[in-house]
Amino acid sequence: MAKRSKKKTNTPRAKRMNRHGRLQSAASWLKKYPGERYIYGYRKHFGVDTGTAIAELKILGVPLSEEMIQSARASAEALVKQKQARKNKRMLRRQEEESSEFPDSDETYAYIAGYTNWGFPYGITWAEMERFADQDSLDDLVPPRPPSQPCTSADERERPYVEDGGREEVPFDIEEFIRYYSSSRNEFM
């Protein structure tokens, strides 16, 4: 039977160490470290947070001034606040996109039904949508079907019979219109 090969990790060894391993490795790392910012360097090299870096450097006997410690803690807090602000901004942007009245629309089209092979959108323009929104103009365009006239298509069967004398105001529902338009487009594709 062939020997199984071990999975190789991409995480550096220094960042996989526990405290005991870090303290042993840090002694040789401190001798090679050229900078003065021990807290920052330790934090980046071993992948720990600021508090852990300060505590472990104190255990190792590195001389840290109170000013260095306060500065490192302040920068860590500022980083956390900055991260939270970015997260909040991202969430607000996502909520605005989701709560948009017309999710598939732009400045030309009120509803984008799809895109051509070349990437051009097609659908219902804002001008067409205004005509559909005006219920009186729709009633004038489509004459009422008398009950004696047979239905010639499935669309006519769904259209209710309206008598001439008693027209009723029906509010325009954009979601229903979009669903109907999308389903009729899918039948032909």
Automatic annotation (TrEMBL):
Domain of life: Bacteria
Biased composition (Basic and acidic residues): 154-166
Region of interest called Disordered, as start-end residue ranges on this chain: 1-25, 137-166
Comp. bias intervals (Basic residues): 1-22
Protein name (Swiss-Prot/TrEMBL): Uncharacterized protein
Source organism of the structure: Cohnella fermenti
